[in-house]
Design a protein that fits this description.
single chain, seven-stranded mixed beta sheet, 3 domains, 525 residues, five-stranded parallel beta sheet, globular, 22 strands
């Protein structure tokens, strides 16, 4: 390991975690290549006239103690007082200290309230949808009856085999509930019918959610309120999460600073365009400067890649077998546009906070299920951190559009996108065009790896990549898997461990975000 050169492709959570772990645990030269001029990948923070945008929204919460401790070692928690407090999830509690950090400190994480709701036909519903009185009143008795009958039918005669995401959802929620709250939104996100999306997406993203569990939870609510364990209830991370004071990019900018301080190199605007493979190992990575177009060859003993798999295969050129190239070339991605809108105020709704002059809602996210608009989700940046907004007497909203690079939404000019976005807020009854103060448009390519196209054949690509002894795929696009931020970090951790231990075992990386029990029930990780 001494003197080895590790090239890390990508300076998002996966790449920077890997670099940080290697710098701390190995005597190696670490070079991070980042094609853009931003740190953090889609976990970056973008500033616009003093207002900050979190692309996609990033709760700093994980079921992994290692990840939670790692974050807090980078940015300590700022709490209302210096007393340790408890956080709880899945019946597990752990004490957390504010570490002496105060809210007026700059480099801290805040404890934020968590609330996400569904907005459908002008009404707010719990997210995930709950079997409770509020939901029943919103839907009405006729629709509730149809949903319950549909659910009973689905449980009695499930679809076998489950060959698509639609099958997966109908089996768990019933056709009526699926068509009301899942189908249109999911197809808005992915741009293809649910019948064309693999059920693996549901297995990864909708673990543990079931109507029967929701009903049991609702029926037991009176008994829970009589319980004595209020400490865990009041501090549960089901209701709260950690968040950097100035958005998620603050975490990754701080990590990058530590990597550089320890001797690691982070080369910005350097795209990996060539990967040389000899005798089953990568011998070098060719980086191209995005300004000068000049290319630099970097000899590598190990490579950790977070770049999209399709692009990585292209960079390997003719050495890749034709079948691997075919499958990689058919992998699909979903792109993303955020329209930031600065508003004087929202329109008052049933979800507005009482006595708020801006009629702001308390949500972090609002999932928009209505068919008549293209927007998929709203973020209220004020509620992620007050320091995300320059003027606290305004409302700073992110309108999220899921699209494909080059399609109508992606290609629409910035001014027209802003007009469309505020027009959709008006249509939804959430804001008036006259209250628009300013706006900005951000486009993010390859934000989500798709579970369609040639994804069903992905093991062909994985097996080939795993056969390259000194190559480790990590992160969301690096593994073509819908990983959260913490999942990407864990894959990077295991890649760094394998390099330090000179191991060729890639299985621990692929096990992250797969085993339901590991992620949903177990406490240790």
């Amino acid at each position: 390991m001494d003197g080895a050169t590790v090239v890390v492709i990508g300076a998002g959570p996966g790449g920077l975690t890997a670099a940080h772990e290697l710098i701390g645990n190995a005597r190696a030269r670490v070079i991070v290549l980042e094609a853009s001029d931003d740190l953090g990948g889609i976990s970056k923070t973008v500033e616009f006239k003093g207002n900050r945008i979190d692309i996609g929204g990033h709760r700093f919460f994980s079921k992994s103690d290692w990840v939670m401790d790692w974050w807090q070692n980078i940015l300590p928690i700022s709490a209302p007082d210096d007393e340790p407090f408890k956080i709880a999830y899945q019946n597990k509690q752990r004490s957390v200290s504010a570490n002496g950090a105060a809210t007026d400190d700059e480099n801290v994480m805040l404890v934020r309230s968590r609330l996400s709701r569904i907005y459908y036909e002008g009404k707010f519903y719990s997210y995930p949808i709950k079997a409770d009185v509020s939901t029943a009143l919103n839907l009405g008795p006729a629709r509730v009856t149809k949903m319950m009958a549909s659910y009973v039918r689905a449980r009695a005669t499930p679809i076998r085999p489950e060959s698509s995401l639609e099958d997966f959802m109908i089996n768990r929620f019933g056709r009526e509930l699926y068509q009301t709250f899942f189908k249109d939104y999911t197809e808005k996100v992915w741009g293809v019918p649910c019948t064309e999306i693999g059920q693996e997406w549901g297995a990864q993203r909708i673990k543990g959610l079931s109507v029967s569990r929701a009903i049991a939870h609702a029926l037991s609510a009176p008994l829970r309120r009589l319980g004595t364990n209020q400490e865990a209830k009041n501090t549960s991370l089901i209701e709260s999460f950690l968040y950097p004071k100035y958005g998620p990019g603050q975490m990754w900018e701080t990590v990058a600073g530590q990597v550089r301080a320890e001797g690691g190199e982070i080369r910005m605007k350097q795209r990996a365009v060539g990967v040389e493979v000899e005798n089953g190992r990568i011998s070098a990575v060719v980086a191209q400067d995005m300004d000068s177009q000049e290319k630099t060859r970097i000899a590598a003993d190990y490579v950790i890649s977070t770049m999209p798999v399709r692009e990585l295969v292209d960079a390997m050129a003719a050495v890749v077998p034709d079948e691997v190239r075919r499958v990689a070339g058919g992998l699909q991605y979903r792109d993303f546009v955020t329209v930031g809108l600065l508003l004087r105020k929202l329109k008052p709704t049933g979800g507005s906070l009482p006595d708020s002059p801006t009629h702001i809602v308390p949500d972090n996210w609002i999932y928009v299920q209505d068919k008549g608009v293209s927007v998929g989700r709203l973020q209220i940046f004020n509620n992620w951190s007050p320091w995300m907004v320059a003027d606290p007497n305004t409302v700073w909203i992110g309108m999220e559009y899921f699209c494909a690079e080059g399609d109508d939404i992606w290609s629409l000019g910035d001014e027209n996108l802003k007009l469309m976005a505020v027009g959709e807020l008006e249509k939804l009854g959430l804001a008036d065009h006259g209250d628009l103060l300013d706006g900005v448009v951000l486009r993010v390519p390859k934000a989500y790896p798709g579970y369609y196209g040639t994804y069903s054949e992905f093991p062909i690509v994985r097996d080939y990549m795993d056969s390259i002894a000194n190559l480790f795929l990590v992160g969301r696009n690096g593994m073509h898997r819908y990983n959260n931020q913490d999942h990407s970090m864990l894959t990077a951790r295991y890649a760094a461990q394998a390099i330090v231990e000179n191991s060729r075992d890639k299985a621990p990386l692929w096990d992250v975000n797969v085993d339901d029990e590991y992620h949903e029930e177990k406490g240790e990780s």
